[in-house]
Write a structure and sequence with these properties.
Length: about 575
């Protein structure tokens, strides 16, 4: 019975060797066996397998076996039974040595970074996706409770490159955080990751920005934009607009454009201040005066670099030409009246700018009866002249009446100005005086109103010839001698009933109560007009006026100011 029990124990021990040799169970089983000794062979059990158990960061690794199990030194004695199979007859279990006992090692993995930040030049914090000028990067990595011997390691790669696990830079941890200085990087976009490591282990990597761009380096400023203007397309060409619109292109900086500074001044070498004034690529400026201006614009990128300045010149001309002076061939005193059958209406004028000139003549009803276009551009400065012959666009003489004249000036860029004069009169009434015949005729058109012999100036004080107009009409008028007493031409104050003043300094058509003879021969003498009936007048035209034949009274009533006085030899 004891033999059977021993065999059972030996078999159980052999089974336990394969399942419990690593933790010493087999040795304890053999220690409880009391089988009898017998001839035996020895089998060496395989050594225990050393396993590595990983854990989460900060969690101790569990019970890693660091030595060969004691079961490796355990042997079993066997004997041959009746069937020829080995039968365990006895078990010998030597005491385990001290080096064979299992050892438990407690290993801590560094934690993943809990805080990650970045700054440019060690001062300016950069958010995810920001750009900087490239004056050094500072990366900060932290996790509470880090051992002071821990090291923060970072890997920086161009955004187009995947992470490789190679450390770019590192820094010692102090008070749970580390500051990693990266002195210089090439221009471009980057991403980065960080981890903590110790002498015995390396923690997991953590990515800043989760694979997106962390920061960009751009050390150079943007190129100058290309500027254009839909209102002033040709630089320095003059345009008649006080509102300017400018468009410009994005310079295409790798860091992107943050905005633009601009300035409008009169300096071709000017530049805008380094202040973003707009993020648009167009601008409209209004209420500009005439002058040459320069529009300057420059871009600032997202790294803070200011770019080159683009300058676009414009010439604003919003000053319209004007008539600086004018004079008509008839005077205000004559009512600006002319007789187309004898004369033309002359207008002399000057203008401030070279201009295209057109003239419109309008009647009292507002109808344009004549349109005159002068060729080319009329020069500024010297006097210019234009004449209207009193005819309409069909070449017919216009009726007597009141007319207005308007002049339109248009300069090279389209600035226009209109000057107008009203109260111009067309009359067909005229007084004809013949000095050789000493006779006067008054006509209304082709109709004779009256004719009469007259007396005019003598050879020393002749009556002027030419075409004149009645300037003023005087009634009950007294003449005073312009010559002093003692002059052969002096005369006492002389009263007349009617006087028509037609030329300076003092030529009139008037009656002469002191004269009894008119007609040929009455001005043939060479003496003073006051010394004889045949010595003529002081230059005026004397017209008979008696109660029986009041010709001067009739002429005075018929000839208003503006009536033409045409004196011929």
């Amino acid at each position: 019975m004891r033999r059977i029990v021993s065999l059972i124990l030996v078999a159980a021990a052999a089974f336990a060797i394969g399942t419990a040799s690593a933790n010493g169970t087999f040795a304890r089983l053999l220690g409880d066996s009391h089988a009898a000794a017998a001839p035996a062979t020895t089998a060496t059990l395989p050594p225990a397998i050393v396993s590595t158990v990983s854990s989460q960061p900060g969690v101790p690794v569990s019970n890693v076996v660091s030595a060969t199990s004691a079961a490796a030194n355990t042997s079993v004695a066997t004997s041959t039974g009746a069937s020829g199979q080995p039968v365990p007859t006895a078990t010998t279990v030597p005491a385990p040595t001290a080096t064979a006992a299992p050892t438990r090692v407690r290993v801590l993995l560094p934690p993943a970074p809990l805080t990650m930040s970045q700054a440019a030049g060690g001062a300016v914090a950069l958010t995810e996706g920001s750009w900087t000028k490239g004056d050094g990067m500072t990366l900060r990595v932290g996790a509470p409770g880090l051992h002071k011997d821990a090291v923060a390691e970072v890997e920086i790669q161009p955004l187009s490159h995947a992470f490789s696990g190679h450390v770019t830079a590192d820094a010692q941890v102090s008070n749970g955080a580390a500051t990693v200085i990266v002195p210089s990087l090439a221009q471009g976009a980057y991403h980065w990751q960080a981890r903590f490591s110790s002498a015995s282990a390396e923690g997991p990597w953590s990515q800043f920005a989760h694979g997106a761009m962390a920061f960009g380096i751009q050390a150079t400023g943007p190129a100058a934009p290309h500027v254009s203007s839909p209102t002033d397309p040709q630089p320095l060409a003059a345009y008649a607009t006080s509102t300017l619109t400018f468009n410009w292109t994005d310079p295409g900086d790798p860091a992107g454009t943050a905005g633009y500074a601009y300035r409008l001044d009169t300096d071709p070498r000017g530049a805008p201040k380094s202040v973003i004034r707009t993020t648009n690529q167009h601008l409209t400026l209004s209420r500009l005066d005439t002058g040459t201006y320069y529009f300057h614009v420059r871009a600032r990128d997202n790294a803070g670099n200011w770019g080159q300045t683009a300058t676009f010149p414009v010439h604003v001309d919003v000053t319209a030409p004007i008539v600086t002076s004018h004079a008509f061939s008839t005077s205000a005193g004559s009512g600006f009246t002319f007789d187309p059958s004898l004369e033309k209406l002359q207008l002399s004028y000057t203008i401030s700018k070279a201009s295209h000139v057109t003239i419109g003549v309008y009647d009292d009803a507002g109808n344009r009866v004549r349109h005159i276009v002068l060729p080319g551009f009329q020069a500024a400065g010297p006097p210019l002249n234009i004449a209207w012959d009193g005819r309409d666009n069909d070449g017919k003489t216009v009726p007597a009446g009141s007319y207005s004249v308007y002049m339109r000036l248009t300069d090279h860029v389209g600035n226009a100005h209109v000057a107008g004069w009203s109260g111009l009169s067309v009359t067909y009434k005229h007084i004809d005086v013949s000095l050789s015949q000493q006779h006067l005729w008054a006509y209304d058109g082709a109709t004779l109103f009256l004719d009469t012999p007259v007396t005019t100036g003598n050879q020393k004080l002749p009556t002027p010839t030419g075409t004149f107009h009645v300037i003023t009409a005087q009634k009950n008028f007294t003449f005073h001698s312009p010559w002093p007493k003692g002059s052969p031409y002096y005369y006492d104050p002389s009263f007349v009933n009617f006087a028509l003043y037609f030329d300076s300094p003092g030529y009139f058509v008037h009656d002469a109560p002191w004269r009894g003879a008119y007609g040929p021969g009455t001005n043939s003498g060479a003496g003073s007009p006051t010394q004889g009936a045949d010595n003529g007048t002081h230059g005026c035209v004397n017209v008979p006026n008696t109660p029986a034949n009041p010709l001067m009274a009739q002429l005075y009533a018929w000839a208003p100011p503006g009536t033409v006085v045409h004196v011929v030899q």
